[in-house]
Design a protein that fits this description.
The structure is a homodimer of 370-residue chains. With 370 residues, the first copy, chain A, is α+β, with helices and mostly antiparallel strands. The first copy, chain A, has two domains: 112 residues, Sandwich (Immunoglobulin-like), CATH 2.60.40; 232 residues, 3-Layer(aba) Sandwich (Rossmann fold). Chain A is built from eight helices and 20 strands. In chain A, strand 2 and strand 3 form a beta hairpin. Chains A and B meet through strand 10, strand 13 and strand 14 of A and strand 10, strand 13 and strand 14 of B. Strand 13 of chain A pairs antiparallel with strand 13 of chain B.
């Protein structure tokens, strides 16, 4: 208890010291919503500053991989007399979810205060800067769909593979209703947990359905990095083995085990980043499988690529305003000129991060299966 | 802080003493099955020794919380010329799953090589020492049930609460079949993810069903530490708020949303450790709700407690041989003498850890709903 009292006094001293140089930092820091249960740090204030506190009395240096305006640079922590290390980002962070880690004495570790999220081919710490529009992915008192883990047989990879399936509220009661399906892919270094954990895809859907903005559909999320021989290497990546898993193994399994409308007109594919590249490659290679395509920070379609193929019902292309919004807008305009139904979306003040993709899912969902 | 340093020195001394006896270590180490994808360390050999390797070139000391024969003591790592820290347990570990963490320069962190599991009120690193009977919880080419996350409304706690529901293979196809339900609780400091992640409850069920050893039933797993005002404190723990959540909110929700046989004779409750204490308290307080009771390393029933109440169809009481097996056997014998159907089970060569509870689930499942 004495230790805690001392820590509080020291923190107050340290914080008042910082305030001299940073007169504009508002001292209303609260624990991040991504913290492990009961953990006070990391904290976030109303301006989007993040503050970190790590206990490691004998460490030589601790640096947080997050810094001003995103993941560039980092935030070094300073040692306090009580053996804790503290530091605040030099400025407000972008709204939304950020992966981060600690570099302690030259080694990469997670922040013991934060929950872990699979990204960069490892379970990373995560922090959430509350967004002004966070309501659309909030847990509300509305009917909730379920997210279930399934294990499906895959001959091509000789494994039982895992997928998560979102079924909308009422799925188990409306036993005669059949639903369209969106196949939704994570990015490089992430896995099939990303869209539920980091993306809140289930809550986005629950809220859109409760507001009457979309008709209910199923979402299927599986692991897309199937060429694991060179694990984690984007250079060796090819969508072909995953195309087999997805189109020849998973889709038939889903259609056999869930109440789907099992045709092309009621099937969409979307992906973020590398998942967008997969979506691009697989929708073009297997035009008989999907009618709605969506690339979230994951490249574009061109009229040339589509020539001679059946026209999809929709191509949705998005990214954050800190990525390449002009490319995205121009691609959609070019597709429209060529007679395709293409829609672009730019997420304001976000980069290659999950708030861009949460917003993209919210935007594309009402356009699917119309 | 000095205490920690002293502790590290003492541990190092103790271990180096033990190392003298360590001549027979077989050099067939392989990555642990609990490792993060692509990670080479930690490793386990055929004798049950665990070897750790952590990169932190400028650290002063790194100690792994696991040591000889379980969680007692620890394994200090030594610095190699390449800046990595390596170390091997002073002896073989118990078979099964162990939580652990690293103490780096006096601070508690997870091993970046290992997956994380919620235990001790934090996401801890985990390692698996392959058990001689590991086949019963292995992922096999059999029909798989699904584990789905549900969010159920709870008026008593004013939240949407999370539970995981295991539905056996065929649940979605056999739309007229109704199933009994086991409510299965985690231990102190764990949460509703434990029985699927650490416990492999779904795989244990898949395998038992595939072998025809049990009739399929549903398992429901939710968070049992509802008195979160004093988060994580076992002393402030009482089962009463959870009794309300479980019996008055979750059970009606499950019966309304899944195809259950919604009566006492087709409902069981089991829990490990603190979850056993909850099971004990709630089955006795609400005898109208359950007919099958199981305490896994979580105390016993006595005939006195049961006097005047309807006799349950089964009381199953288990623990590891390194816990208090005599108490468990004697309790079952006393209950039998008093005319109750009581069964005891002792897991050989395991302590208060998850292999004890995996084996207990395998043993109790065939006795339920007979």
């Amino acid at each position: 208890m004495k230790f805690r009292t001392l820590a509080i006094v020291l923190m107050a001293t340290l914080t008042s010291g910082l305030c001299v140089a940073q007169t504009a930092v508002v001292e209303d820091f609260k624990p991040s919503t991504c913290n492990q249960p009961g953990q006070e740090y990391p904290q976030v204030n109303s301006q989007g500053y993040a503050r970190f506190r790590v206990i490691a009395p004998n460490a030589q240096s601790i640096v947080v991989s997050l810094g001003l305006g995103g993941a560039k640079g980092g935030t070094p922590l300073a040692k306090a007399a009580d053996g804790s290390w503290m530091g605040t980002t030099a400025g407000p962070m972008d709204e939304g979810f950020h992966y981060y880690h600690l570099t302690i004495d030259g080694g990469v570790f997670n922040d013991p205060g934060a929950m872990n999220y699979y990204g960069s081919t490892r379970w990373e710490s995560g922090i959430e800067i509350p967004a002004h529009d966070k309501d659309f992915y909030a847990l509300k008192d509305v009917p909730h769909g379920n997210v279930q883990q399934i294990l499906f047989p895959s001959k091509s990879t000789n494994t039982s593979r895992r997928a998560f399936v979102y079924t909308p509220a009422g799925y188990d009661k409306n036993v005669k209703t059949k639903y369209p399906v969106l196949y939704l892919q994570h990015g490089w270094g992430e896995d099939e947990t990303a869209w539920s954990n980091q993306g809140h895809a289930n809550l986005i859907m629950d809220n859109l359905i409760a507001e009457g903005k979309i008709k209910p559909f199923i979402i299927v999320m599986t692991y897309g990095m199937t060429n694991e021989a060179k694990f984690g290497s984007i250079r060796s990546f090819t969508a072909k083995p995953f195309e087999t898993v997805l189109v020849d193994e998973l889709i038939p399994y889903i259609d056999a085990n869930f109440r789907t409308i099992a045709d092309k007109d009621h099937r969409a594919m979307a992906g973020l980043s590398m998942g967008g590249m997969e979506t691009h490659a697989i929708t073009l290679a297997r035009p008989e499988a999907f009618s709605y395509y969506a690339l979230l920070s994951g490249g574009i379609y061109t009229p040339d690529e589509l020539k001679g193929k059946a026209s999809p019902k929709l191509m949705f292309i998005s990214c954050g305003s800190r990525e390449n919004p002009d490319m995205v807008k121009k691609a959609a305009a070019t597709l429209k000129e060529a007679g395709y139904n293409a829609v672009s979306f730019v997420s304001e003040n976000t980069a290659h991060e999950f708030l861009t993709w949460r917003r993209s899912l919210k935007e594309v969902a009402p356009l699917l299966f119309q």
